[in-house]
Amino acid sequence: MTRTLTLRRPDDWHLHLRDGAMMHAVLPWTARHFARAIIMPNLVPPVVTPADAAAYRDRILAATPRGSGFRPLMTLYLTEETQPRDVRAAAEIGLIAAVKLYPAGATTNSASGVKDFSKVRRVLETMAQVGLPLCVHGEVTDAEVDIFDREAAFLDRVLDPIRRDLPELRVVLEHVTTTDGVAYVREGGDGIAGTITAHHLVLNRNHLLAGGIRPHYYCLPVAKRETHRRALVGAATSGEASFFLGTDSAPHTDAAKLQPCGCAGCFTAPNALSVLAEVFEAEGALDRLEAFASLNGPAFYRLEPNAETITLERAAPEDVPAQIDTEDGPVTVFDPGMALHWRVSGG
Ligand code: DOR
Ligand code: ZN
Q1: Is 309 helix (H, G, I), strand (E, B) or coil?
Q2: Residue 174 and which of 191, 234, 245, 281 are 20 to 30 A apart at CA?
Q3: Mean pLDDT, residues 66-76
Q4: Any idea where the domains of the chain sit in the sequence?
Q5: Cβ of 219 below 6 Å from ligand 1
Q6: Catalytic residue positions, numbered
Q7: C-alpha distances in angstroms, 184 versus 16, 107, 115, 165, 300?
């Protein structure tokens, strides 16, 4: 049985770091395993201008543990007021690595997102010209669409028309949760990729809802039925270049999660790599973990893979706390509901 596995240092292509005390508490957990991360801009207020992104990047760098070498890859939050010239300038100086599209109302702090997609066409056209990827939260928000169907409906109603209109636009369909999303990415050619989270590789909707509601498993897009989870495992472990890791690690305090109307998000930064190794091992695909976690993402973002490596070892279970403390209150670490045998050595 394989006991150690050395990979290029992974990156996280979808991460919520928050700000202030929460950021200080969660950032070290990402920086100890990941070299880079695409930083989500859904702060309150959101990161909408290049100046917002530069200031947020500087706060992240100031909070980054010394010597970790962690590099935040910044994004702008797309609104109907976003200026094409700002996006172009921010991309050209390397300030941003992507722009994030939240349909208005789709998820946490998405109220400033896009309602009328015709209003962002010029920005998208500029992005297509400069090759800047659009990161997409792919769910429609219409109240009449069932929450389990919102990803598939988004592909048909929103994303496909945009991509037909602007075939050069490079798109990351984030946190894919359905067979439809997997198929759409697979059939979409070089211009589209999909990120997959660690938690969606191990959760189906029974884990969330059967035998009691488990608020710490509530995230968006919501976990789907088992056939969809299997499709995600198939895509992630396939080695195909269009699928890579985006943890969507999304910390909320327990007080915010354990509410009559609790927040969406799983905090997976501490154990995402252990969960992945477990899933890949069970599929006999440990040799493809590096493609998923460390190689396919940089290739899509047109960056070099990291030169450094990390080594995972199959040893005693990873020593991850059940909760971490923050000045805002405790945050529960994702519990995959299974023993984890892999840990990052020295991490
Ligand atoms: O579960 C989620 N949490 N999904 C999202 O899209 C947003 C995120 C957050 O910011 O908490
Ligand atoms: Zn997210």
Answers
A1: strand
A2: 281
A3: 97
A4: 4-344
A5: yes
A6: 248
A7: 25, 22, 23, 16, 17
